[in-house]
Amino acid sequence: MSWIAAATAATATTSPESAQQAIGYPTLFLLVLFGALVPVIPTGALVSSAAVVAFHQTAPFALALVFVTASLAAFLGDVALYWLGRRGMGSKNGSRWLEAIRARAPEERLAQAQAKLADHGVAVLVLSRLVPAGRIPVMLACLMAEWPIRRFARGNAPACLAWAVTYQLIGILGGSLFPEPWEGVVAAVVLTVVISVAPSLWRRVRAAS
Question: Is this model's pTM higher than 0.85 or not?
C-alpha cells in the first residue's frame, strides 16, 4: 500500500497555486480562442485579469505562461476565423462566419481599413489588434484583398504577441497597485473597459459636435 501513501503525500503537498494553474491556463486558452472566433468575449480583460493573478503568485514563470497561452490562443483563433472567412468568400452562399465578420465591420471602418491596408500592408494588421474594434474591419479588408492565409498568419503573429503584451502590462499595473488580487482584477477590468469604450465615445462626441 506504499503507492497509496505516496499518492496521498503528493496530493497533500500540491499547492493551491498549482491547482489554480492546472485549471486556469486551459480555461484562459479556451476563452481567448473562443473570443477570437466569436468577438463578443472581452478577451483583453481576461488576459489582464489572468496577469493580475499571475503577478501575485509565487510560482515561477507564471506571467510568461499567461503570455504564451493568451498569444497562442489569439493567433489560432484569428487564423481559424480567417480561414472560415476565406471559405465563405469562395462559397456561392457565403457562410455565417463571413456574415458575422461583415456585421462587425461598418462600411466607414471597412473603407478606412482597406485604404490603410493598401498603403501600409502588414503594419496595419499588426496595429489592428491594439485598436479597440480594429481587428475585424482589417481582417475583412484582408479577405477582400484576397490575402492568402499564410500572408495573413505572418502578419497576425506579431499582432497577437503585441496584443498579449499590452493587456498583460495592464494587468501587471493593476496587480502592482493593490495588495489583494481581486482588487487588481477589478482595476484591470475597469481599465480595459475604458480603453475599449473611449474611442467609440470620442467618435460619437465628434459626430454630435
Answer: no
